[in-house]
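Standup notes, structure subgroup. Blocker cleared on the zinc ion input:
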Amino acid sequence: MTNLPAAVDECVQYSRLIGSDPALVLHGGGNSSVKARWRDITGREVDVLFVKGSGCEMSTIRAADFAPLALGRLHELLDLESLNDTQMMRELAAASLDPDAPRPSVESLLHAFLPFDAVQHSHADAIVTLTNAVDGERIVEDVLGTGVVVVPYVMPGFDLAREVRRVWKEQPHVEARGMVLMKHGLVTFGATSREAYEQHVELLRLAEAWLQEHAPPPEREPAPLPGVSLDELADLRRDVSRVAGRPLVLQRHTDDVVRRFVARPDISALTTKGPLTPDHVIRTKPAPLVGRDVDAFADSYSAYFDEHSPRLDTRLEMLDPAPRVILDPEIGMVTAGSSAHEAQVVADIYHHTMPVLERAEDHLGGYVGLPPERLFEVEYWELEQAKLRRAGDPSALAGTVALVTGAASGIGRACAEALLACGVAVAGVDLSAEVETCFAGPAWKGVVADVTDAEAIHAALTETVESFGGVDIAIVSAGIFGPSTPIAKLTDDEWRSVLSINVDSVARLLRELHPLLSRSTIGGRVVVIGSRNVAAPGPGVAAYSASKAALTQLSRVAALEWAGDGIRVNLVHPDGVFDTRLRTPEMIAARAREYGVDVETYRRRNLLRTEVTSADVARAVVALCDDTFARTTGAQIPIDGGNERVV
Ligand code: ZN
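Run returned:
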C-alpha cells in the first residue's frame, strides 16, 4: 500500500515499545491499531482501520504488518447478531484494502468499535495477576480507578467485540482511560498512539505498584534439585513422543523461578486452575503434567476431550494428548514442542505464568483461571489452530534431535546445516570455539569439546539432552587426516593421535550414545563418515587409512549389535572433498604434483570427472537419516564421483 498516513508509523513505534517488554506481550500476543484517512488510487478518501496482522510480533512490527480495513464495513459487521470465527475472518479479509496485507488480528472488530483513533493492547503480567484473582473485578476497579472499563471474560473474536459494545452502550465511557478484559489483558486508547501508549504505561505503573505492596513476587531461596540421569530425561521424551505420535523436542529448565515453583506442596491444584490469558492455551495445553506419568495425563486429557468436544459446532479431531509443560520436583520444568523454537515459546509463556499463579494464590485470596470447558473452546479455537497450521507441513525429521561431531567445518558443518533445514534440533560438537556461533536460533546448540576427552563428551551429551530431551540421530564426522608420512618414518605419536581421534573417541562416543539412541521413538540413526581410503588406500597415509578401516569395522559391528534396538548404523565413504579443513590448498597442490596433474584435474580425479562437495555428502547423510533408507543398516555408500579401485 502506498502513501500510508503518518499515524501508522507512530503506531509502529509505540507498538514496538510495548512488544519489547516480555512482561507485556509474548510471541505474537497483544495488538494495536490506528484509524486514519487514506486516499485510494482514484483519489477517494477512505476511513481505514490499520490493525496488526494476526500472529505478527509486536517487538519487530513494521508498517507492512498492519492490515488496512475499510472502517465503515467493520461497523456494518458489528451490527450482525452473530458471526462465527470462519465467517468473521472471511469478512475481515474481504474488508481489506490491500490484497498483500497480512490476515488481520482476530480482535479487529474490537479495535474498530472503540471510539478512539489509536488503540494498544497487551496481556501484561501485572494486569492478569489482578484479573485472575478471586474477586478480580473489584480489585481492578480499586487499583486502577473508575476511569477504567472492566469487561467480563468473553472469548476474543466477534463475541468480545459485541460485549464491549454492549458495555459501552450501557454507559458511554467518554472519559475512559483504558479497558481491562478479565482473564485476558489491558486495552488503552487515545487520540494518538503516543497517548494510548502513555495510558498503558500509567495503568501498568499503578498495577505494579499496588502488587509490589499487596502481592510481592516470591523471594524464597529455592532448594537445589536432586540430580536426574540422562536416561531418565530421555525416558520422559520417549513417553511424551509416543503419546504425541511423533517426536517432540523437550527442553529442561532449572532456574530459580522453576525450582521455587516445583517445590510448592499445592502445585497440582494450582496448575489446574487455568492459564493467564486465552491465547496461551494452544501452546501450553489447559494444564501441565505434574510428575512424570505421561500416560495418566494422556488418559485424562482424552476423557476431557470426550466430555467437552460435543459443545463445539463441529466435531474436531484431537490434536494429540501429550503434555507441553511438565513440572517435576526432581527434574524442574520440561517444555515440549514440535521444534526447539516451539519448546522455547512454551517455556517463555510458563515462566511468566508461574509467578502470576503464585502471587494471586498466596496474596490475593486465590488464583482463578478460565473454567475447563472454556479452555477446551480456546484450545480448539479454529482461529488459533489456523495460526499453527500456517506454520506449514512439518518435514519427515521435524522434532528429532541430532548430535554432530566435527560440526564447525567441512562435512560435519554441512550435515548440521542440512539437518537444521529439515527441522531437526542439532547439537554440534567441535574443538573449535567457532562451533558456538556457526548457526543461530533455538534449534542449534554448539558445544566446544575435544572428542578424545571422555568428560568433555559426557558434558556435551548432558547439554544436548537438557536442551533437546534426547538424541535420535548421530553423525560421526570429527576426524583428522594427519601428516603425509611413509610408514618407514611414521612416529608412534603420529600413529596414536590419528587413531585416538578417528577411532578410539568414536568407540567411546557410541558407547555413551547407545542408551539415548535406543530410547528414540523413531529408531536411532547413526551415520559415520568413513573414507574412500578404506577400499582404496593411498601411500603416505597409513594411520589415516588404518583408522578409517577400523572405524568402518566398528560401525559394522554396531549395526549388528544395535539392530535389535531399532538403531540403523550406516557409513558414507567420501573422497576428494576439498572444501574441508582436512585439506589446505598447499596440501591439495602437493598431492596434485605427486600425481603429476594440475590442481583442477586433481580435484575432479574420478570416473564422473565431477567435484564432490561437503554439501553433496550432507545430502546423502540426510537421506540415510530420514526414511529413504528405512530398511538399510550396515551399508557403505561411496560418495566419490566413482573410483576405479572402489567400483
Ligand atoms: Zn488479546
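Discussed briefly. Residues 125 and 352 are 7 Å apart (CA to CA).
Next: hand off to the docking folks.
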